[in-house]
Design brief:
Helix content is 50%, strand content 11%. The chain has 24 helices and 14 strands. The chain has an eight-stranded mixed sheet with strand order 9-8-7-10-13-12-14-11, with helices on both faces. It has a four-stranded mixed sheet with strand order 3-6-5-4. Helix 11 packs across helix 20. Mean pLDDT is 85; it is low at 1-22, 33-47, 645-661 and 663-670.
Length: 670
């Protein structure tokens, strides 16, 4: 499978990661590959823990023994266990380790950008590995922020080759991260334009937003011509074409929803040493009130805390959210990154900025209001294992848990239920690419980096990524787990969110249909079908819905006044609109049944009104696509009261029996 860039050069699909083929690092000792290579799960077979020798006489022997046993269970270094248990902080441990190994520490206080031989576009490799080459006194040294089993490996290497002591320096992750954020211009550029530079044919073309009057007039004329063309397309006998696309969209969703859902496969609980390090990223803006509950929900996941990594990305001017994170206190598994002040100001750019800092072999994305079910990470790993190496992403279901409701939020709840409980599982069974949801999608980190991460200029980066994965030969599937979210209650909030979604789907369709034959070659007929019926059909149906209503109204007025009327066109449009309303209601009812919320079905009688709102959002999106294509409409959270059941379940799952708690020896030694 081949994808061509804009110049027509062919690039191999799933294996076209130039970063992996040509190392950016200066010449280095061979043993550094274990730190610079891809994220792994450590060596579960190592029985000795020389990384603890520096703590003998400092911590109780029973505590050191407990950390050693836990490290063997998890396949990570015993130092990482003690740091995650908050027995000793990273800086104190590294001070002890440096003194024990007789190597220098590096705090980056007197390190300039010119002191590292890495180019700007190579700085992300230092963020990913925790290793940075530095020039010191005319020689190359390696500053390391140890992770996984790096401290153990360093102890073993220096035991066998003590002459290498001058080649290493020890640094905390915080110090290296701060240096990278302050001097890593390449990280900011990669977050903003990384996909555009690597795979320009697969990315939205950036627009700086400064529109002169000539360009503005041209855009306005283009938008007016498009609207006129759509009006003519829906008029007369030519209306059969949009009607067929409309029916294709409804028919595919209905067919996918009617497929019987596969019973959830039950897998034996994996031992902790088989679990990878898992990174959860959340991009936050003006979410001070949601930070604590989000972190609580992630920490309540049924996953070894020593293998859980949380990254919160915030904006530079969002002082309230930054203060809320600071109030959480020191948490070894939690890091805060400040997104660079370069355009565009979007969620995918923030996620891209975090991607090089990901430590886990697996990565997932959560939103500020999310409450994932406790077993979601383990369920995602099982789904990857069942699907095989071609699975690039697994998507959990999103479920609304509002208590306070409006008619709009109830229909939003029903729509979500239909999408995530009926449509996406059906598309999975049909083998079609998925338009991913923006939250609770789980990736193999290596795959996500290989396909270019997220498109910073696409305001529905999730849907775009689902089709880009397909172009690289990977599959996205849904799996049986839910994340509880908050539905917008007010019309203004809902309309802003849906306008952004519609605009992003337009961007996604335009990007991948730039060269239809190439897209066919990459993603096959299934990809072409899903893109045009699910994404393109969804947008087109919302755009032409009011035009069909106008045609019906005009036909009715003409008949009532005794004038000429095209009854065939009106009949086709009437049947199409009825099919849209009924099909959407049936899909939503199937989803509501699967989440046990059939009592909400009477609200589906308001589906025609909901469709009118969708059409308003679609036409607003078309206007924004012309005038401000990269504008990100922020959705406010914390407005609705939410069901406490999900939180109670998470807290219950987080309470472990003391006999099975790996930190029990810690408390006994305290």
């Amino acid at each position: 499978m081949v994808v061509a860039d804009r110049a027509g050069h062919n690039v191999t699909g799933a294996r076209r990661d130039e970063d992996a083929r040509s190392s950016p690092w200066p010449k280095r000792p061979g043993f550094l590959a274990s730190w610079i290579g891809p994220a792994t799960d450590g060596d579960a077979g190592v029985s000795q823990s020389p990384e603890l020798d520096c703590l003998r006489g400092v911590l109780a022997p029973d505590l050191l023994q407990a950390a050693r046993r836990r490290a063997q269970q998890l396949g990570i270094g015993a130092d990482q266990v003690l740091i995650r248990w908050a027995v000793i902080d990273e800086a104190a441990y590294l001070q002890r380790l440096a003194r024990h190994l007789r190597i220098a520490r590096e705090d980056f206080a007197r390190v300039d950008r010119d002191d590292t031989p890495l180019h700007d576009d190579q700085m992300r490799f230092a963020a990913a590995s925790g290793v940075m080459p530095l020039r010191r006194n005319g020689e190359l040294v390696w500053a390391m922020a140890p992770r996984r089993v790096a401290a153990r490996t360093l102890c073993e290497v220096l035991h066998d080759r003590p002459s290498l002591r001058d080649r290493f320096r020890i640094a905390t992750h915080g110090a290296m991260q701060q240096f990278l954020q302050q001097t890593g211009r390449g990280l900011a550029q990669h977050a903003s334009l990384g996909l555009q530079r690597r795979y320009p044919a697969l990315a939205v073309t950036p627009c700086d937003g400064r529109i002169g009057w000539r360009a503005g007039l041209g855009r306005a004329a283009g938008g007016a011509l498009l609207a006129a063309a759509m009006l003519l397309l829906c008029a007369g006998h030519s209306g059969v074409i949009p009607a067929l696309l409309f029916l294709g969209f409804i028919g595919l969703r209905l067919a996918a929803s009617l497929l019987p859902r596969q019973p959830a496969a039950r897998s034996a609980r994996r031992p902790d040493h088989e679990l990878p390090i898992y990174t959860a990223i959340a991009a936050l803006y003006r979410e001070a009130s949601s930070v604590a509950s989000l972190v609580e929900a992630i920490e309540a996941l049924d996953y070894p805390p020593e293998k859980l990594d949380i990254i919160l990305v915030v904006e530079l001017d969002d002082l309230a959210t930054r203060a809320a994170i600071a109030r959480l206190g020191s948490r070894p598994h939690l890091r805060m990154l400040i997104a660079p002040a370069v355009g565009p100001r979007t969620k995918p750019k923030a996620l891209n900025y975090a991607l090089p800092f990901v430590r886990g072999g697996m990565v997932t994305v959560f939103d500020a209001e999310d409450r994932p079910q406790p077993g979601q990470l383990r369920a995602a790993i099982d789904a990857f294992a069942r699907g095989g190496p071609k699975i690039g992403c697994v998507q959990a279901g999103l479920c609304v848990d509002n208590i306070t409701h409006s008619w709009l939020s109830r229909l939003f709840l029903a729509e979500y239920a239909g999408q995530f409980e009926a449509v996406l599982p059906g598309l999975t069974r049909l083998g079609l690419p998925l338009p991913l949801g923006g939250s609770s999608n789980h990736f193999r980190t290596g795959v996500l980096r290989a396909v270019g991460g997220w498109d910073a200029y696409n305001v529905t980066e999730d849907a775009d990524l689902g089709f880009r994965l397909a172009r690289f030969g990977y599959t996205a599937i849904s799996f049986d787990s839910r994340t509880f979210e908050e539905a917008p209650i007010g019309l203004a909030a809902w309309l802003g969110q849906r306008t952004r979604w519609m605009k992003g789907w337009m961007q996604t369709w335009c990007v991948h249909m730039r060269r239809p034959r190439l897209f066919w070659r990459d993603a096959g007929w299934r990809g072409l079908l899903a893109l045009n019926l699910i994404v393109g059909g969804g947008v087109l149906s919302a755009l032409i819905h009011p035009l069909m209503l106008l045609d019906l109204a005009a036909t009715g007025w003409s008949l009532a006044s005794g004038g000429p009327a095209d009854g065939l066109s009106a009949g086709l449009h009437g049947l199409t609109i009825a099919a849209g309303y009924i099909g959407s209601a049936v899909v939503a009812a199937i989803g509501l049944k699967r989440i046990g919320r059939l009592r909400e079905c009477p609200w589906l009688l308001l589906m025609p009104l909901y469709w009118i709102c969708l059409s308003v959002a679609a036409w607003r999106a078309l206007g924004e696509l012309v005038w401000k294509p990269h504008h990100w409409q922020k959705t406010e959270h914390g407005v609705a009261a939410r069901a406490p059941a999900a939180t109670a379940a998470m807290r219950a799952s987080a309470v472990r029996d003391s006999a099975s708690d790996p930190r029990r020896p810690l408390r006994a030694s305290a």
